[in-house]
Amino acid sequence: MNPQHHLDPATLVSFASGALGEAMVAVAATHLVGCRRCRALLRDADDIGGRLLAQQQPDRNRQGRFEVLRKAMSERLDGVPLETSPQPKPENVLSVVPEDHLPEPLHRYFGTTYSGLRWRWVAPGVRLIRADNARAGSLIMLKIAPGKSLPTHGHGGTELTQVLRGAYDDRLGHFAPGDMADLDSEVEHQPVTIPGVPCVCVAALEAPLRFRGWLARKLQPLVGL
Amino acid sequence: MHSGYPAWEHSPFEALRAVSPASAQEKDVLYWAREMDAVATRRDRTSFMRIYDHFQPRVQRYLENVGAPEMVAEELAQEALLRLWQRAGSYDNARSSLGTWLFRIARNLQIDRVRREPHWVNVQDALEQLDEFENPGEASATEAVAAHCDLAGRVEKLPAIQARLIRMSYFEGKTHREISDEIDMPLGTVKSNLRRALLRLQVQVRGRP
Ligand SMILES: [Zn+2]
């Protein structure tokens, strides 16, 4: 899996700084698990945080309190042994998963396997599951029949969509498993799934989608976004 | 047991910085790497307390900046430094500067304890583990040190608007949308500025096109 479409670096800044909502974190992490390039950029984003931390100016008025804390720390050291870091094992590593396993960042919301997913019919050729335990934003999985055209829609806020299975095309390109569509409110698009296999995606939405047309009007209340 | 200079004074090492600013950051990174090595291999308490004296007030300040009340920030800063003592063996200076390592610990503690989103920390831990598994010692320590120093300089030289947006992200934990609303800047412009800030740093650090 060699992703062709990546997270916006601006999204990685939010991820590193802890500013990304829970639903977005789940989808961004799903991409990061399969993308070394974005992980490398995320390390750079962490470095910015490290640099900002190093630049902090200590409060000169707290000397007395600092001495108390320092003494307390010095006394705690004895009771704390060196922790040996566990060697990461391939089978524990996120990207190495059998066919039926969902990416690990999604387990908490959708369970562990594709075969265990309980799809809800929302429109011809469109099935959906909505995670109800993501605290910020909406987190959904979509399964779209092969060769199907979704209604044109724009986004009230940022939308992250990661393709898990199948593929689709829109005016931004071809999106296959591992690819991320990191879209903001200016973008309107009309994805068309490829023939042969259904397209399964996971998407996080910061704000409601704006569908247009009859299917949209039908989809909107059902999706409940 | 006291190291001889309070944390808010210039350490002997920091005094060096004033003399030769060009190599100061490099010495800084190497200095802390050596202290960490002493903590990990010899359980050297003096080295640990030197790290503590320098970083504890900074970690605490960072935590207060991101919104932890003073007492909570104090407690979490203590815990961050205790983790450093405990996990010194897993610190790899080729992977990150000590400042970055502590930033991750402090950020994760804040998200776990103040925001109460423990799953977020699980995600971070898993991603880090993945990196360790895939890239054991990918860069030499010397290259890494040079890269960290380069980055430090670049962060300082960011254009004012990018620096401001970076601070709002890291210190105020604001989403792009919140930044956009607060300073009345179009969302797309907020994003492009943050994107440019990170790419600018990345290009310099890793020398990629
Ligand atoms: Zn990527």
What does this structure look like?
The complex is a heterodimer of chains A (225) and B (209). Chain A is α+β, with helices and mostly antiparallel strands. Chain A folds into two domains: 9-93, Orthogonal Bundle (Arc Repressor Mutant, subunit A), CATH 1.10.10; 107-223, Jelly Rolls, CATH 2.60.120. Helices cover 31% and strands 22% of the residues of chain A. Chain A has six helices and eleven strands. In chain A, a hairpin with a 6-residue loop joins strand 2 (126-131) and strand 3. In chain A, helix 1 packs across helix 3 (36-55). The longest helix of chain A is centred in the N-terminal third of the chain and has 20 residues, at 36-55. In chain A, 43% of the residues are buried. The model of chain A is unreliable at 209-215 (pLDDT under 50). In chain B, helix 2 (21-42) packs across helix 3. Chain B folds into two domains: 8-141, Rna Polymerase Sigma Factor, Chain: A, CATH 1.10.1740.10; 158-209, Winged helix-like DNA-binding domain superfamily/Winged helix DNA-binding domain (Arc Repressor Mutant, subunit A, Orthogonal Bundle). At the A-B interface, helix 1, helix 2, helix 3 and helix 4 of A face helix 3, helix 4, helix 5, helix 6 and helix 7 of B. Zinc ion binds next to helix 3 of chain A.
The tally of strands of chain A reads 11
Bound molecules: zinc ion
Task: Assign the structural class of chain A, choosing from mainly alpha, mainly beta, alpha/beta, alpha+beta, or little secondary structure.
Answer: alpha+beta
- Spans of at least 5 consecutive residues with low confidence of chain A: 209-215
Spatial strand order of the main sheet of chain A: 1-2-3-10-5-8
What is the beta-strand fraction of chain A? Answer: 15-25%
Order of helix and strand elements from N to C terminus of chain B:
HHHHHHHHHH
Measured distance between first and last alpha carbons of chain B: 49 Å
Radius of gyration of chain B: 18 Å
Number of domains of chain A: 2
